């Protein structure tokens, strides 16, 4: 009986008749033996396809209740747990499977991708290293190995892995997309774009390829094409992309609107600051703007855009965001496709000036911080930040504090720490070695209070920073800022491919790494500039 019900279920599945398939599989699963197990496996697949993961889990757990060692059921359960964001549970199941079947490439491949998503690329690389004996004949394994190597900074190893994957399977679209991304990171733009375009034709869901194409277009200053490709970001099943917010109002296209337009932030803090530069443009088109943003940014945005109704992001969204006066909605970054399609569309077009500044710090807090810092040292007030904790690009964007020793010693100044995280040991070590003191203000914590951090940055005469949140805050405030921009994997799209000026922030002066990992020449250039730099005239 179960065999006929299984055959009937497969027929329904082939035709997309899912309710009928579920009924037949449920009946077949009620028996015993291999047919019942097969029915439960198929039932879990159907529920997974229909977006009902809890019921898919129940079917697999029924198999495991009968046979706790069933590797296929455990593997599928781990995959579902990974998709649902239950990383700890998925990792435990994958590692249990590896103890039983250490040579399983699918298990190693999926565990490595899970660890990558958990920002543990070194562990992911170890998992794949153990499989490379047989994995060298698997395009899937070589593609995953290449991703792990790339995220660990081994660009040569990553390239070799992607190229081997494509020799094994020239139609492996994901390996080709990965190679294209790597070529973009190493500056081989034409070759990278060619690989990405080819990957688009090979992949059924090329959304992440489109996102990488968008970044490449932005780097080259091709903004219109970049924004068009960037609209695929919400389809990208990647840990760097956030899901869309659940707003049902129609999409705003930039037309004049009688009523409010809801603009909602979607990226990290730095990106929300970048894209907030377009809020004034949106205000000229809409009767009112309602802005949902990262909660830490809400006080700063509310002060900077007093005519905007600023709402901290929450889940579920605040009731204000469903009010009947909201006529349309748009993701914050998508404003670029309306207002930033040409280089001439950017207001911040003069390097080293405050042109385009759009954020405003608390004036009283700024004055208080400036007065206090001036009492603690001599010379101009200079803020320092030298590290990024971005899981993927952070290592390439970061340096050691001691790398700045020569620059800091070239002239008298009062240095203020803008670096988030625990840096007390680094700061103490620098002072012991060089005698250079860096003020650490425990009253300001940018991870909790972005408004106070903005006031701290606004209190300074100059900010010297790597590519991180400090650069965005300083640029948006119009503070004189020297940003140290990495080459290769650490290069972010908003800095562009070349030049000293940043279109998004007029007060930034970009110092660029000549090669990935090589800070020396950049620091020598910056040291010479700092020796001759004249502080601006500031009203305390």
UniProtKB/TrEMBL annotation:
Gene3D superfamilies noted in UniProt: Glycogen Phosphorylase B, Tetratricopeptide repeat domain
Mapped TPR repeat ranges: 37-70, 139-172
Keywords: Repeat, TPR repeat
UniProt-listed InterPro entries: CellSynth/LPSAsmb/PSIAsmb (IPR051012), TPR-like_helical_dom_sf (IPR011990), TPR_rpt (IPR019734)
Entry annotated with the keyword Nucleotide-binding: no
Entries under PANTHER family matching the protein: TETRATRICOPEPTIDE TPR_2 REPEAT PROTEIN, TPR REPEAT-CONTAINING PROTEIN PA4667
Protein's name according to its UniProt entry: Tetratricopeptide repeat protein
Source organism: Marinibaculum pumilum
């Amino acid at each position: 009986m179960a065999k006929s019900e299984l055959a009937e279920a497969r027929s329904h599945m082939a035709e997309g008749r899912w309710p009928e398939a579920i009924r037949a599989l449920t009946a077949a699963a009620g028996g015993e033996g291999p047919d019942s197990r097969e029915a439960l496996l198929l039932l879990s697949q159907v529920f997974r396809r229909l977006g009902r993961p809890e019921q898919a889990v129940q079917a697999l757990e029924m198999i495991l209740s009968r046979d706790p060692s069933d590797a296929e059921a455990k593997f599928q359960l781990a995959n579902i747990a990974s998709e649902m964001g239950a990383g700890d549970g998925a990792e435990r199941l994958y590692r249990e499977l590896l103890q039983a079947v250490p040579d399983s490439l699918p298990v190693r491949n999926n565990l490595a991708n899970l660890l990558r998503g958990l920002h543990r690329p070194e562990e992911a690389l170890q998992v794949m290293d153990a499989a490379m004996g047989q994995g060298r004949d698997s395009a899937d394994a070589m593609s995953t190995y290449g991703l792990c190597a790339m995220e660990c900074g081994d660009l040569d190893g990553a390239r070799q892995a992607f190229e081997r994957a494509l020799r094994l399977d020239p139609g492996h679209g994901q390996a080709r997309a990965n190679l294209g991304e790597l070529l973009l990171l190493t500056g081989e733009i034409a070759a990278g774009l060619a690989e990405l375009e080819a990957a688009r034709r090979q992949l059924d869901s090329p959304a992440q390829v489109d996102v990488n194409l968008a970044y490449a277009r932005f780097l080259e200053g091709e903004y219109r094409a970049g924004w068009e490709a960037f609209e695929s970001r919400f389809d990208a099943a990647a840990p760097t992309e956030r899901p869309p917010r659940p707003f049902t109002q129609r999409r705003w296209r930039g037309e004049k609107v009688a009523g409010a337009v809801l603009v909602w932030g979607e990226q990290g803090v730095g990106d929300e600051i970048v894209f907030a530069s377009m809020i004034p443009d949106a205000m000229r088109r809409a009767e009112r703007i309602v802005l949902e943003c990262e909660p830490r940014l809400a006080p700063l945005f509310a002060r900077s855009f007093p005519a905007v109704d600023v709402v901290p992001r929450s889940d579920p969204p605040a009731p204000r965001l469903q009010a009947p006066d909201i006529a349309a909605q748009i993701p914050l970054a998508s404003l670029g496709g309306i207002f930033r399609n040409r280089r001439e569309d950017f207001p911040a077009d003069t390097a080293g000036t405050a042109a385009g500044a759009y954020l405003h710090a608390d004036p009283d807090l700024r004055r208080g911080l400036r007065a206090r810092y001036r009492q603690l040292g001599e010379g101009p007030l200079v803020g320092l930040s030298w590290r990024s904790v971005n899981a993927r690009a952070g290592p390439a964007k970061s340096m050691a504090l001691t790398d700045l020793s020569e620059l800091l010693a070239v002239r008298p100044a009062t240095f203020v720490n803008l670096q988030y995280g625990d840096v007390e040991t680094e700061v103490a070590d620098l002072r012991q070695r060089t005698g250079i003191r860096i003020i650490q203000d425990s009253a300001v914590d940018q991870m909790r209070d972005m408004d106070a951090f903005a006031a701290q940055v606004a209190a300074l005469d100059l900010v010297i920073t790597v590519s991180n949140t400090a650069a965005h805050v300083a640029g948006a405030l119009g503070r004189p800022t020297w940003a140290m921009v990495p080459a290769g994997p650490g290069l972010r799209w908003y800095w562009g491919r070349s030049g000293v000026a940043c279109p998004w922030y007029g007060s930034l002066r970009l110092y660029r790494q000549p090669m990935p990992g090589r800070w020396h020449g950049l620091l020598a250039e910056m040291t010479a500039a700092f020796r001759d730099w004249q502080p601006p005239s500031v009203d305390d």
